[in-house]
Amino acid sequence: MKTSQTHTYKKNIGLKYHQKILLNIIKQNYNKKDSGNILDIGCANGIFLKNFIKEFKNYNSIGIDTSSEMIDLAKKNKIENLNFLKKDFMKYDKKFHFDIIIASGVLAFYDDYTKAIEKMLSLLKKDSYLYIFGTFNSADIDTLIKFRNNYTNSSWEKGLNSFSVKSISKFLKKKKLKFYFKKFSLPFNLKKKDNPIISYTLNFSKKNRIILNGANIRMELFYLIIKKR
């Protein structure tokens, strides 16, 4: 899946704010002395797993991404028990189950969220957690979007799809899964970047800040935490 949205990860050497929050959420469900296996779907430059391993030293980690450029960057993190693969997770067919699965910004690339979530769950052990971060709509409207980023001379791309909280909730309830949404808010401003697709904030007051991107789309960001029983 070729995308011009990897631009923001090329120079990033630290955890993004939403990744720091995610790491804290995981700490609430897992003990640092635990051992197991974690899969990061859409791992980009691998910075999240690099920091996860520092906290959870007994875990084996695998990061997968469809971008060769991102995987090459990730592989520079030569850390024990940390491996990276260039692959679409939908084609990840190894009969292996993970204790933790992370999927940040991934669901927006798939037109059928049911198949994507079912695949994620199929790779997860029972009594384990799937953490999805991304754009969800508080209004009951689902959107499928294609865009062309003329800044990078890209072809038509995906990655801005948004599904409603209600649609996702109905699907997960039918599967009798335990889950909850946690809304994400930025406590600081983001300036516009040269690459227009990268998100920025528009401020109406100190407490009224919305996140937009260059496609003129408002981004409501949530963590979706699912426990597989």
Question: How would you characterize the overall build of this protein?
Answer:
The protein has 229 residues and is an alpha/beta fold. Helix content is 21%, strand content 29%. The chain contains five helices and ten strands; from the N terminus they run αβαβαββαββαββββ. The strands form two sheets. Strands 1, 2, 3, 4, 5, 6, 7 and 10 form an eight-stranded mixed β-sheet that branches. Strand 2 (59-65), helix 3 (68-74) and strand 3 form a beta-alpha-beta unit. The longest helix is centred in the first third of the chain and has 13 residues, at 17-29. The chain is globular.
Detail the topology: elements first, then pairings.
Blueprint: H1 17-29, E1 36-41, H2 47-55, E2 59-65, H3 68-74, E3 82-86, E4 98-104, H4 113-122, E5 124-137, E6 163-164, H5 165-174, E7 178-183, E8 200-205, E9 208-212, E10 221-228
Parallel strand pairs: 1-2, 1-4, 2-3, 4-5, 5-6
Antiparallel strand pairs: 5-10, 7-10, 8-9
Relevant terms:
eight-stranded mixed beta sheet, globular, alpha/beta, two-stranded antiparallel sheet, 5 helices, 21% helix, 229 residues
